[in-house]
Amino acid sequence: MNLLSKRPLGAWTVWLGNYKTFKSRGVDEANFTEELFSDLNEALNMYLLQGYRKCLIEGLTEEHNFVFVNSRGACFESSSFSKYLSALLFKLTGSKPTSNILRSSFVVNMLQSEGGNSAAIRASAASLMHHSQHQQSKVYDRRNPADRKRVAQSFIGKRDRDLNVLEEKASSKIVNTRFSRGDLVVVPYVDNVKHEPRFWFCKVMSDDGVEVGLMELSAIKGGGYKANLQSVWKEPTSAVFHVDAQLNRESGLYELISGQKEIFELLK
């Protein structure tokens, strides 16, 4: 039996009576405080305490206590929730991942974040997800060789760009650009091996005024780009540029309208 409850001080608690991962199973309890999980707290308040769930189950002949229900108000059957979640993510991102890919995307995002290679953070994440650090590295870290190198490349590029920013500040010519979640942008760079201009096409996930959180949009055969949930990282604001692009809602793919020549002009 699994339970979801809200404590008097505001923390939501999930109690799993029999969780199961690749090599472990058992009982687990996790707390989600309003301070750390404000969006989740607000969503659960609206869904459970303000009547959203009640609207979904209204009119059912048999009442039940399942928290998450389908559009008919009934509980999800076996893998139907995973299919529902996959379809929802495809609608929002153009990518159709499985629930296991979501676990991998969390690990990849953690490893590519600032401090993600801290032994303490890696151990804590492994404990939270109920797998060993070996599994974390071998099973859930699905970055390809280029992605594994990207953090180091970004670090090197960021250091060079930070020096340029300091010089610009000294001459009072710095211009601050802010990005909104969902903006389509590019990050130009020079391939240090072939010495050719390249760029990453991305979707903005966040902007704190200093660094921009990005999700890569990978090119696919036949044209177009799709969201790559396993390639998420941050770049300094000065390295990110708006680009003429759009989402083709019919195909679910992103289309880059600006030509490569226009984009490579950003490197000059």
Describe the structure.
With 268 residues, this protein is of the alpha+beta class. The chain folds into three domains: 1-74, no CATH class; 76-142, no CATH class; 145-267, no CATH class. 36% of the residues lie in helices and 26% in strands. It has a five-stranded antiparallel β-sheet. Strand 4 (184-190) and strand 5 (197-207) form a beta hairpin. It is globular. The model is unreliable at 165-176 (pLDDT under 50).
Strand percent estimate: 25-35%
First CA to last CA: what distance? 61 Å
Portion of residues within helices: 25-40%
What's the quaternary structure here? single chain
Radius of gyration: 22 Å
- How is the main sheet built? 5 strands, antiparallel
Biggest sheet strand line-up:
7-6-5-4-8
Give the ordered list of helices and strands. EEEHHHHHHHEEEEEEEH
When the domains are counted, the total is: 3
The average pLDDT score comes to 77
Number of strands: 10
**Basic shape:** globular
How many distinct helices?
8
- Spans with pLDDT under 50 lasting ≥5 residues? 165-176
**SS class:** alpha+beta
